[in-house]
Amino acid sequence: MSVCMCALLPVALTANGCSDASEPKKPIAVEASMARPTAASAAVVASPASKPRPTVTITVEPGARQSFGGLGANIFPWTKAAIYKSQVSPEQNTRIAQLLWRDAHFRSGRLAFHPKDYSPEPGKFDISFYVDGYFGSGKLTAAQEAGLKDLILSPADFPEYMDDGHGFMKDDQIANYAQLLANFIRDFKTETGVLVGATGIVNEPNDRPVKLHNAQWPVMIVSVRKALDAAGFQQVKIVAPESANCLADAYATVDAIKADPAAWRALDGIATHSYNNAATPEMASRAAGKEFWITEAGGTFDGDEDAGDALQATSLASRFLNDVNHGVTHWQYFIGAELADPHGNTDRILKYEVNPFRLTVLQKYYYLQQLSAAFDVGAQFHHCLSSLDGEMTYTYGKKPRLNAAAARDPDGSWSFALSNYTAPSFSDTDDEKNFALHNGGRPSQAYSVTIQAPELAKLTTPLRFAVHRSSGKLNNAAAGTITMDGGKLTIPDIEPLELITLRSTEGRP
């Protein structure tokens, strides 16, 4: 997915009618989907199925693969912080931040910026827009107060003066660009007191007006490391390439970096995005020993999204489970919260309108909140295999019917998660000439799922798990308990477009 930050910044808010700064602030109005389910409704969903369902076995392999660094979201600056503050009161701004960084336990934030605007000509740098856009608006401060810990910088483009005339960066500009990134991080810390802990090189590099040849990537990585170290930022990480898809072009870039020992040492993490082509076993093997970041995940369908959209929510949950099952350590959604877009809102978790202010919590929020409650920061993920979909890889072509992930949390508890990505709107037809059919899911099918974890088979006492469910009708609802004995447990009913998480509550190994 290619996104120009300028298209996302609300530069034309006055056309929508800004409220006057002196107007009394309105209390937050929230869509009905914020309402919590009743215990009775949860019990109904947790009831055993009335008819037999196909049985699927998920096998949790022994040995941890990677440690989880948490969830996060992109945060965009406002071009005119005063407009934002006139439309969103401090209380409303705080509530938005608390929903994500406190209540959904998000940890990281990705800051967008345009190098071509920060440095419009050689030797000229101006960070004032970003200081005002992030801190003048109060967005970043509210997120930090709500629990935001880790920041990663997202460069959106290369300055035009670095173009070689053929759409690629001049070789003699690589060191200058590396210095530009170090300068931004230095200026941001000087002006705000906040140190950005990681940086990308450029967002979705194959879809930029100015690109890098694969042979230039190792030179760039080494140059950025040198510039950061020289500025005293040895602790700032570098992640790359942030490709839009985890496919051949991303593999080729990572392979080019890996072929250079100095560049591979300087690179802290692999990074790709999670849309139609999420993390793969092939990239997991390449990333072994490094962090693996998903710095963007978003909606996968055209059109608008409103409260209660379980199809969007399950697509996202399935990709999250796919990604952590294939080695991902840090996972970020595209836009955490932003003004509603009349052209569609699938790229948001929370959307809001103004005059009067109205906040809509999209269904994906509850799925992500449920997942973050199941998998703590520091959770050790174990690789899972399915008797139905094998590796359960969410990539080009038909999508897995079930996705699963398993981890041991820092407190010693175990967590499992399952998503059922089948739906009435999907078809078994697989026509490569029809993108939607070829890349959709399968028709609705409920399953009975047995999870077997050989590592837990040696326990002498059963292990009890608390169950939570989200669907088109339930929002992260408690749904009773289930017991694992001999390293096995069976969930008799996971319905289409449903997310189920289980976390052990007693008898921890």
Give structural attributes.
15 helices; 509 residues; 21 strands; 8-stranded parallel beta barrel; alpha/beta; 7-stranded antiparallel sheet; 28% helix
What kind of sheet is the major sheet?
Answer: 8 strands, parallel, barrel
- Which structural category do the helix and sheet elements fall into? alpha/beta
Task: Write down the overall geometry.
Answer: globular
The whole-angstrom Rg is 23 Å
Low-confidence stretches: 1-49
- Quote the distance from N terminus to C terminus: 43 Å
Q: Kindly state the number of beta strands.
A: 21
Q: Which percent range describes the beta-strand content?
A: 15-25%
Helix proportion of residues, in percent? 25-40%
Oligomer: single chain
- Order of strands, main sheet, comes to 3-4-5-6-7-8-9-10
Number of helices: 15
Mean pLDDT: 90
Briefly characterize the structure:
By secondary structure, the chain is an alpha/beta fold. Helices cover 28% and strands 24% of the residues.
Verbal overview:
There is one protein chain. The protein has helices at residues 5-8, 39-46, 81-87, 90-103, 115-118, 128-136, 139-146, 174-192, 216-230, 248-258, 261-266, 281-287, 310-325, 363-374, 435-438; strands at 55-60, 66-67, 70-75, 108-113, 150-155, 198-199, 237-243, 269-274, 291-297, 330-339, 348-353, 358-361, 380-382, 384-386, 402-408, 414-420, 447-452, 463-470, 477-484, 488-494, 499-504. By secondary structure, it is an alpha/beta fold. Residues 1-49 have low confidence and may be disordered.
